[in-house]
Design a protein that fits this description.
alpha+beta; four-stranded antiparallel sheet; Immunoglobulin-like; 14 strands; 38% helix
Amino acid sequence: MRVRNNCWLILLVIISVFPEFLYAQTEGQEYGFVKFDYNLDDIFIIVDDELSSAFKYDPELLIRLEEGERKITVVHKDINDFSYRIDVYADSTTVSKVNIQTFTRNPKSSYAVLNEGRNIVINTEPEGQIYIDEELIGTGTTSSILSPGKYELMILHPEHGVLKTSLNASQYKIQEFSRFNQNHNPPSTFQRFIPGFSYLNTKRYMRAALTYISLGTVAYLALDNNSSFNDLNRKFDEYQFNYLNAESFVESERNRIAALNTLHEMEVKRDRLTYSLIGFGIVYAISSIDGLRKPKGGYKGNIKFTPELVEVGNASKLITPAVKISASF
């Protein structure tokens, strides 16, 4: 018993004298420190493109980072975002000094997103649980800041089930995604029978466009076949009249054959007209029925508790400005 107690005592002494021993065993990663020195204030710093971990620049701040090469992105409201790389060494301090001397008139900056602390806002019913890539981030209306890229949005409602769609997060603007299980602006009974109106009402513009293109195509074919049928019908009447009033056998036979050929063409045009009308009816029925169904991704739209948003820029990648940089790493 005394030997066991002595062993525990020795172990506690070792840990208290050499705490880095325990830290190394649990972490397995060496760390260094970085001190930033910029000639501007009101700057955000992004490390390794982790937008959600960005922090405000403070000249007195000492940042602890894993050793190795780190990507640093500097964000200011008056310049384009720009990036550079530094090497972080274990158990030492790296000083990164950057002197910014050139500014941009309309900068593509992440400043507004970082200052607001969000680049997406999602609206749904108050009971709806919001998931991003299967991780719960909030209920009802919520906002978050995500690294640029594509994400899967899922909204789980206890009564209405699941809505699924995708979203693209940008580091340059705050985007709003409104998805609801119920249509807050339903069409009237009369509007439901207008071709494609239900698609327009629920902002499914691609399906509305396909509906109108399809209906326009079959309507054109129907009108064209109907016009051709009427022209052939007039010719048939003419050939029939000439056949009945022919003065010779040759003339009578010629008009008879022409009338029969015209009658055959009339039957072809009549069939095509029938098919066109059937096609028009099918497209109209399918679009009307499908337009009344709830979209897989939910209904788009705004309701009273939608927050006011600010949109900044419209860029898809980092753009390095023409700046003069002096750095010591």
